[in-house]
Amino acid sequence: MAPKKQGTKDRNKILEENKSTLDFYAKVMISVEVTYIIFRFTFFNFNSSWLSWVLLLFGTSLYCGCYKFMESMAKPTYSESGALIDGGMDLNSESGTAEHVKDLIILTAITQGLAIFTDYMWLLLFLAPCRAMYMLWVYLLAPWIFAQPDETEVDPKKQKKMERKMKRSGMM
């Protein structure tokens, strides 16, 4: 039995879910940033160097870029009368760009949380370009490189003869 087709969501429901999703990820980002700053620069002050500040700035810029991108994807459209025309893209769909952006936010938050203890944990952010290269290979390059060649042109007379044979044998 084929899987059930997923129903479409109401515009208002998408708008509300997008707001709650953006709110959740904003809370995650802010809480990890504040925790990092408090612990890294107060309790572990002996280990804060210029590199710690640069990495904090890098993590913050990643957060801001991802959040602004998700915010622009979820931007609703209203009519002149104020009625909701479009609730924006669904940030909670199971596949799509928003899912990858949310994964990047989670990866950055985990990395920053672990980087409280050592700067070497920032190396975990190299997992993002590795995953991007993997997806590029799996979904774009490999299917293109290893695709079966197109069928060669068959003489129309031979094609008709083959079709007649197939009809007679009951294959068509």
TrEMBL record:
Highest rank taxon of the organism: Eukaryota
Query: Short name of one Pfam family for this protein?
Result: TMEM208_SND2
User: Which cellular component terms (GO) are annotated to the entry?
Assistant: endoplasmic reticulum membrane; vacuole
Membrane-spanning regions, if any? none
Where is it localised? Endoplasmic reticulum membrane
Q: What does the entry give for GO biological process? A: vacuolar protein processing
What topology does it adopt in the membrane? Multi-pass membrane protein
| Record carries keyword Lipid metabolism | no
> Which InterPro entries does this UniProt record tie to the protein?
SND2/TMEM208
Q: Is the Membrane keyword given for this protein?
A: yes
For this UniProt record, give its keywords in alphabetical order, as a comma-separated list.
Answer: Endoplasmic reticulum, Membrane, Transmembrane, Transmembrane helix
Q: Which family is this sequence assigned to? A: Belongs to the TMEM208 family.
Name of this protein: Transmembrane protein 208
Protein source organism: Desmophyllum pertusum
